[in-house]
Amino acid sequence: MGTVEGANQGANGSAVEKKPTVVFVLGGPGSGKGTQCAKIVENFGYTHLSAGDLLRAEIKSGSENGTMIQNMIQEGKIVPSEVTIKLLERAMQENGNDKFLIDGFPRNEENRAAFEKVTGIEPTFVLFFDCPEQEMEKRLLSRNQGRVDDNIETIRKRFRVFMESSLPVVNYYDAKGKVHKIDAAKPIEEVFETVKAIFSPKNEKVD
Ligand SMILES: Nc1ncnc2c1ncn2[C@@H]1O[C@H](COP(=O)(O)OP(=O)(O)OP(=O)(O)O)[C@@H](O)[C@H]1O
Ligand SMILES: Nc1ccn([C@@H]2O[C@H](COP(=O)(O)O)[C@@H](O)[C@H]2O)c(=O)n1
Ligand SMILES: [Mg+2]
């Protein structure tokens, strides 16, 4: 019997949708998640989905959730999981790739548990960009991308949320042996040397 394209067969022979490969990219605000994701995309064929970028696009689109999301971002707070997960699911479906870097998600235990429950996807592994606050603060204050949350007051709130809510998620995956901790305080190219070594050579783009 033939199989449905892009699907596996379950025990009873019915088609089971094949889950995409997902790598969660975590780290404090300004640790360099977006910068490194862009380089991974260039070299390893992943699609980069930044939860923060999707939420900012949702504000711009004039969505009914826009004002709520804008207020949460301005305060450095975490938007309810159902909103962010819907955006991630839609972006994955629309894209069609089967390998995704999910950047800045899960940000708390609620994000983590809800994503697993709703999508049935477990990350293949987790990149954790580890960087001292002093360095992250310096980077954010000179980022100049016009982000409403790149001001010292909001940055301090984001650091607190990261320590209290996001680090426990990193620890959760660490206990499962899934975390690659990377020294993100080094220059961009040196960080990427470490990142490159984590991705299997067989995934490397061949020109
Ligand atoms: N290794 C590095 N050394 C110096 N500057 C860096 C490094 N990595 C990134 N930067 C710079 O720091 C700023 C923040 O980087 P980036 O936007 O990638 O961080 P992020 O982790 O995605 O932050 P956020 O969580 O706020 O989205 C950018 O201006 C970027 O160019
Ligand atoms: N899972 C997430 C991710 C982000 N947010 C909100 O967006 C802000 C910016 O996120 P970046 O990853 O681009 O820094 C973040 O401070 C949160 O307010 C979220 O709620 N949930
Ligand atoms: Mg980012």
From TrEMBL:
GO biological process terms held by the UniProt record: 'de novo' pyrimidine nucleobase biosynthetic process; nucleoside monophosphate metabolic process; pyrimidine nucleotide biosynthetic process
Keywords attached to this entry: ATP-binding, Cytoplasm, Kinase, Nucleotide-binding, Nucleus, Pyrimidine biosynthesis, Transferase
Pfam family name, one: ADK
Annotated ATP binding sites: 30-35, 143, 186
Residues annotated for CMP binding in this entry: 111
Keyword field contains ATP-binding: yes
Cofactor(s) in the UniProt record: Mg(2+)
Enzyme class name: transferase
Catalytic activity: dCMP + ATP = dCDP + ADP; UMP + ATP = UDP + ADP; CMP + ATP = CDP + ADP
Family recorded in the similarity comment: Belongs to the adenylate kinase family. UMP-CMP kinase subfamily.
Domain characteristics, as noted in the entry: Consists of three domains, a large central CORE domain and two small peripheral domains, NMPbind and LID, which undergo movements during catalysis. The LID domain closes over the site of phosphoryl transfer upon ATP binding. Assembling and dissambling the active center during each catalytic cycle provides an effective means to prevent ATP hydrolysis.
Protein name per Swiss-Prot or TrEMBL: UMP-CMP kinase
Organism: Acacia crassicarpa
